[in-house]
Design brief:
Elements lengths: L1 E3 L4 H16 L22 H10 L3 E7 L4 E8 L3 H10 L3 E4 L10
Antiparallel strand pairs: 1-3, 2-3, 2-4
Length: about 110
Amino acid sequence: MALDWKQEITDLVWRINSSLKDNFGVKIDLQILRNMAKMPLSRQKDVFKDFDKSIQTQNFKLGFIDTDSDEYVIIVYKISDENEVKGAIKRIGYNYLDANSPKINNEN
């Protein structure tokens, strides 16, 4: 799923929940602070780390395809499938980033 860096955190919550429901039949309660919900993703340091921690409690993980653009291409997958996900991204010619990457967390 692709998200523009200007989209709000509520968009991220909706996308992650939709992906979990549509692909795995799972719903995870993603806790977010009300005062952060309307802020753009680009203004929230570590937001992806926080979401990743939340879904890891249910054995899922966030991954990212590094397209070197101004959008986030996000993948929600089972932790047990991590090697396959990384390999698939490499085969299509991109680099894999995880939620701890400085590039994802606006640390660059």
